């Protein structure tokens, strides 16, 4: 676990797939053909926690959905790329548009995906994560498999790990508790 925490401590940008990661992967249409998705509140708090400490977030998804834009705005996702099955090309294009002062390369990214179109991007980044119900080939190439499935708090697990790696987890938790706030030398 310490190796994962150390690796997560290098992450400057968390990149997420949507279907199967931020949602449970089911696509539901109502009687009018309108698509709906379910998102986890826990994942939203996790993504907001990263923003608090200057860690950027992005979505790269193969489908296009106004719900994804809405959710991304609600939880403060920094970059949204939709309608792209070529996740590696989309990731490289995203990285090329970032402010050079951020000094973010693929090695500084975590990527969380669950299916075959995610593999090349996952193989390029410094930290690759997935969910337990991901395709076997994705699991085989991941640094971490969460305990929770997509859409049920899996992203939160990665966010918490990144906060631990950066030494911000105890400080983040202190915002929500009456426990004594950690001192600088006790943060981990």
TrEMBL record:
Q: What class of enzyme is it?
A: hydrolase
Q: What cofactors are annotated for this protein? A: Mg(2+)
Which InterPro entries does this UniProt record tie to the protein? CMP-NeuNAc_synthase, HAD-like_sf, HAD_sf, KdsC_fam
What Gene3D superfamilies has UniProt attached to this entry? Answer: HAD superfamily/HAD-like
Entry's EC annotation: 3.1.3.45
What are the UniProt keywords, alphabetically?
Hydrolase, Lipopolysaccharide biosynthesis, Magnesium, Metal-binding
Give the reactions, separated by semicolons, that this protein catalyses. Answer: 3-deoxy-alpha-D-manno-2-octulosonate-8-phosphate + H2O = 3-deoxy-alpha-D-manno-oct-2-ulosonate + phosphate
| Organism superkingdom | Bacteria
The task this protein performs is described as:
Catalyzes the hydrolysis of 3-deoxy-D-manno-octulosonate 8-phosphate (KDO 8-P) to 3-deoxy-D-manno-octulosonate (KDO) and inorganic phosphate.
Q: Member of which family?
A: Belongs to the KdsC family.
Q: How does it assemble?
A: Homotetramer.
Q: What is the official name of this protein in its record?
A: 3-deoxy-D-manno-octulosonate 8-phosphate phosphatase KdsC
Whose protein is this, by species? Psychrobacter glaciei
């Amino acid at each position: 676990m310490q190796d994962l925490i150390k690796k997560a401590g290098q992450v400057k940008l968390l990149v997420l797939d949507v279907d199967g990661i931020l949602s449970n992967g089911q696509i539901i249409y109502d009687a009018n053909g309108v698509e709906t998705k379910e998102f986890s509140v826990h994942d939203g708090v996790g993504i907001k926690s990263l923003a608090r400490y200057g860690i950027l977030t992005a979505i790269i998804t193969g489908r296009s959905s106004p719900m994804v834009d809405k959710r991304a705005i609600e939880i403060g996702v920094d970059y949204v790329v939709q309608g792209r099955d070529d996740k590696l090309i989309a990731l490289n294009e995203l990285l090329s548009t970032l402010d050079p002062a951020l000094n973010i390369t693929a090695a500084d990214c975590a990527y969380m995906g669950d299916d075959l179109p995610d593999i090349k991007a996952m193989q390029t980044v410094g930290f690759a994560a997935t969910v337990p119900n991901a395709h076997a080939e994705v699991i085989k190439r991941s640094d971490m498999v969460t305990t929770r499935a997509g859409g049920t708090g899996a992203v939160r697990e990665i966010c918490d790990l990144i906060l631990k790696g950066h030494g911000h987890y105890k400080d983040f938790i202190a915002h929500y508790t009456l426990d004594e706030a950690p001192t600088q030398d006790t943060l981990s």
